[in-house]
Design brief:
InterPro entries: BP-dependent_transpt_permease, MetI-like, MetI-like_sf, OppC_N. Helix content is about 70%, strand content about 0%. The two termini are about 45 Å apart.
Length: about 325
């Protein structure tokens, strides 16, 4: 008789049977938050398709259309659902493109934070001693300065030294670099704490005995056991990075008016809010609040699910 070999379940089947998926299905807040985030993300990625106008194309912008209210208000125009800004750009189109820039800055800055923090945390926790002391004191110094303070100083000095034109060309890159470098200690401290616990376990001793190199032990064996807290931190840090970018744009150190983010849209409309053109600031502000709120709610849910001591079912 031939023995029948039972096929192993697919990854999708394993995911559907996981605690993570069952917890998600039970949590209505997580479902609503994920749905809203998915809609915002999809809309921003499909901005060239969904937007009736290209706010970056000056041939599609008419200054005579400036400050037209949303179409549900008196004097509104059917062409502009959410009205227009002070430059005559369609607010709906500009918000779609601006959300994409804000999300890009948030995600890329967090990837940079995670890379720096994971590498430094692994090295500090694994080797310990003087290396650990030096890197953690460096992290303490970094944490003593707020992200906004570091960003304001660096961006202001860069703008003063190299001029506003060069800064506008490199604004996206500069924001990612500054926000990313300013927040790496959050990851480094978390990863280091996990590595200190993991390096004393038997599988690490076994890897050393068979002659594996330190970098392979750190990145191939210890690192996977640190990913749960890193994933939780990343979710929250995306929201923080988006807020930081919005704050810097509001102060005039963010994205240029020609390529606005949500923060720069709010900033550009703030001077018109008391003159009656409230939609230029309020509507992007609502989108920013919703985006940050749903990301934070997802981060809180993931923290509870991935930490059995906090999850209550």
């Amino acid at each position: 008789m031939q023995s029948t070999v039972k096929a192993s379940p697919s990854r999708w089947a394993q995911f559907k049977d996981s605690h993570f998926w069952h917890s998600f299905k039970k949590d209505k807040i997580a479902i609503v938050s994920f749905t809203i985030f998915a809609l915002i993300l999809s809309a921003s990625l499909l901005a060239p398709v969904l937007a009736p106008f290209d706010p970056y194309d000056l041939t599609q912008v008419d200054i005579m259309d400036a400050e037209i209210p949303p179409n549900w208000q008196e004097n509104g125009d059917e062409r502009f659902v959410f009205g227009t800004d002070a430059q005559g750009r369609d607010m709906w189109s500009t918000i779609l493109y601006g959300t994409r820039i804000s999300l890009m800055i948030g995600v890329c800055a967090v990837l940079l934070q995670a890379f720096l923090g994971i590498v430094i945390g692994l090295i500090a926790g694994y080797f310990g001693g003087k290396v650990d002391n030096f890197l953690m004191r460096l992290a303490d110094i970094q944490l003593s300065f707020s992200t906004l303070m570091v960003a304001i100083i660096v961006l202001a000095v860069f703008q003063a030294a190299f001029g506003a034109e060069l800064y506008q060309e490199l604004a996206l890159f500069m924001l990612i670099m500054v926000i990313g470098i300013a927040e790496w200690p959050q990851y480094a401290r978390t990863v280091r704490a996990t590595v200190l616990a993991e390096r004393k376990k038997e599988y690490v001793d076994a890897a050393r005995v068979i002659g594996l190199r330190s970098n392979r032990i750190m990145f191939r064996h210890i690192l996977p056991n640190t990913l749960s807290p890193v994933l939780v931190i990343s979710t929250v840090q995306i929201a923080n990075a988006i807020i930081s970018e919005a704050s810097l744009s509001f102060l005039g150190l963010g994205m240029p008016p020609s390529k606005p983010s949500l923060g720069s849209l709010i900033s550009s409309g703030f001077e018109f809010i008391f003159s009656g053109s409230w939609w230029i600031t309020i509507i992007p502000g609502i989108v920013l609040i919703c985006l940050v709120l749903v990301v934070n709610l997802l981060g809180d849910w993931m923290r509870d699910v991935l930490n059995p001591k906090l999850y209550k079912g």
